[in-house]
Amino acid sequence: MHTVWKGSISFGLVNIPVKLHTATENKDIKLRQIHKECHTPISYEKTCPGCEKEVKNEDIVKAYEYEKNKFVVLDNEDLENLKKANEDKSVEIIDFVKLDEIDPIYFEKSYFLAPDTGGGKAYLLLKQALEESGKIGVAKIIIRSKEQLAVVRVYGKTLLMETIHFPDEVRNAGDVAIPEDQNITKKELSTALMLIKQLTTEFDPEKYNDDYRTALMDLIDEKRSGKDTVETKDPQKPAASNVTDLMSALQASVDKTKKKSAKTTARKKPSTQTKIKKNA
């Protein structure tokens, strides 16, 4: 399993070297956008609408927009210094709480924690202590230059770390428009409770499947087996010259040649007075 982070867990004076592995994966089926006519994949270039030209990565800087069209520019040195100052590779457990005290809205992403070299015994000690106390650890960690709040808990035979949102990252539910009292009758409520009771069961994650993803893959496999596919070659980059500019240059050359030819003809054609003198 790929290691995404190495560091340590600390609680009190106990320090445990650990490795972090992503516990979940996104299995969404990614569809590419291609040109209907020639089936070439569509690419997206970074362009500046102000300059109307393509922008290279080295010409892009990061900035914070504090008002409409007003920015504070942050250069790479500023960000690197800030990153180094906050790059402590440790998961510091601050408190121990009960899992059911944290609303699921706070949970974000899950990681498996594995002991690194020399950390086996301390790892198992923390795991057993969490199991017997029925508690989870609330901790702080920095991942990819971002400080995260997290919880450490037991999951099966391993320790699991789940990043959770800070309170100011969770929007106020009071801002959601909810209808006023709709005079729900006792009969309506009892019927709803009866339905809930009939559908109540133990949670078994294996019984739930992504039906849309399965159907989409079946459709893709069906089309592929029926040779209902298209193929494209790598697009050839056009020459540096622009067709419109080339045509303009050619037309300008033709016009220039016409004017030059007209002047030469005019110089060679004798005047009327010259003709009279010769006739005289």
Question: How are the SSEs ordered, and which strands pair?
Answer:
Elements: E1 5-11, E2 14-22, E3 47-48, E4 53-54, E5 62-67, E6 70-74, H1 76-85, E7 90-97, E8 107-115, H2 120-133, E9 136-143, E10 146-155, E11 158-164, H3 186-199, H4 211-225, H5 243-268, H6 272-279
Parallel strand pairs: 1-7
Antiparallel strand pairs: 1-2, 2-8, 3-4, 5-6, 7-9, 8-11, 9-10, 10-11
Question: Could you explain how this protein is built, in words?
Answer:
- The protein is α+β, with helices and mostly antiparallel strands and 280 residues long.
- Helix content is 31%, strand content 26%.
- β3 and β4 form a beta hairpin.
Under the CATH scheme, which class of the domain at 1-25 and 81-170? Mainly Beta
- Major sheet: order of its strands? 1-2-8-11-10-9-7
Order of helices and strands: EEEEEEHEEHEEEHHHH
The shape is extended
Q: What structural category arises from helix and sheet content?
A: alpha+beta
Helicity, in percent? 25-40%
Rg computed from alpha carbons, rounded to a whole number of angstroms? 36 Å
- The tally of strands reads 11
Average of the residue pLDDT scores? 81
Q: Largest sheet, if any?
A: 7 strands, mixed, barrel
Number of helices: 6
Q: Give the N-to-C terminal Cα separation.
A: 110 Å
What ranges have pLDDT less than 50 throughout 5 or more consecutive residues? 240-244, 271-280
Strand content: 25-35%
- Tell me the CATH topology of the domain at 1-25 and 81-170: Ku70, Chain: A, Domain 2
State the CATH architecture of the domain at 1-25 and 81-170: Beta Barrel
